[in-house]
Model the fold of this input.
Amino acid sequence: MTTKRLLPVLGLGLLSACSTVKSHRLRDDYTQVDKQQVKRLVVVAQPLPDGKPAVGELWSLLARQWVNQNRDFIVKSNLALPDRPEDLSFKGLCVEGIEGVLWLDPTVALKGDGAEASVKAKLTRCRDGEEVWAAEAAGSWGSKDEDYSQRVAQYVQELGEEVAPYVVPSAKLLAATLDTLPSPELNDADKDEKIELGE
Done:
């Protein structure tokens, strides 16, 4: 009896996870051009989610770690900045050794024992500021999840108690969003560099 009741609930959970991403797009010429040229990234969360620097740091760090672990990009750094960006080509972040900027435009609000969150994400290439990939996603999640308890503790230790209720909703939203990212093609030197990064 219990099993029969659980199945539809699990099905709904999977469906809602799939419908988190509202839209995503990739350049038509990605395979011919950017797959070989845009590999080294910086991640920026801007403006600050919920107006909190620590939550902005959490977002950029979550994204950096997810992308380094699940895609062949080499994410060199992450940062969180206040206010809306004035230059959407992000030329100021395109320092030597950086080929692209992964911009997260997050909105997060704590509600009850969880949070409502949405994000517009965009990958731009440094050489001309053109968009390579973009996605939009939104949803609401509880802040408690046993599967995430270790990660919550880790981020609280690193960024402070303030981030605790944001970790689970932010991680789930970012994972769904970033799962639509393509993966670049690394040569042997790139692969060695990624191994050295060790994330």
In short: The CA atoms of residues 63 and 174 lie 7 Å apart.
